[in-house]
Fold:
Amino acid sequence: MMKLWKPFAIALTASLCPGFAAFAQGVDQLVRLEVLDGGKSDNGTYQGALHLTLKDGWKTYWRSPGDAGIPPQFDWSKSRNVGDVAITWPAPKIFDQNGLQSIGYENQLVLPVEITPKNPAKPVRLRGEMDLGVCKDVCVPGRLDFDHTLDANAGRNPAIAAALAQRPFSAREAGVAEATCRLTPTADGMRIEAHITMPSAGGAEVAVIEPGNPTLWASQSETGRRGNTLVARSEVISASGGPFALDRSEVRITVLGSNHAVDILGCSAG
Structure:
């Protein structure tokens, strides 16, 4: 099992991708970002999306990018009349990158965002920055700006609707009967072993474990089945290198299968 916390993982990615630190093409030459409108809902929220169009063969990363990826980060602070932003991530794909697992999207990503305005009577201006990485034969990190006043009268957007339909199933929708997590101390942190009683999501399933605490990092999991139970093992370590507590209720497990994905929030002691 790999024993890397995220800064080390990013450094390793850089060493595996020769053009990571400096590359002739900037990220803005490899990916185009636009804001899509989806209109205003009856409950007062705005539906929008960040639409990333990548050059052929290039890919970008999911919120938990694996051991060879760059996690995207968002800064909404320059926006106006934005009280809350809720992101819905479409189910990602798994890639092999120089022998390491990365998780993300190729060619394009439509990332739905639901915005709750501070003042429902005023317009919403979505302005900010997205830090991301894109990879092909080399990996290029960069930052993209966006600035768009949302159209409250916009109609249903088919691209946003399709992206929302690609979200992972909830535990209930997927028929998850139980999810437990066994925690065992290790030399570097804590071993987590998740047991999930659920129907198959199809093919060779991969479970991605997220600790829920941004100061903690979970290694690539080892995933296998024992009949109706999916078993996933990972090691969680802290960026500080010191001891920590792991709250099972904050653990998020995403099962990626060939038929669908499943989003499981929290696990009980087991």
Observations:
- Residues 101 and 264 are 21 Å apart (CA to CA).
- Helices lie at 6-16, 158-165.
- Confidence is low (pLDDT under 50) at residues 1-24.
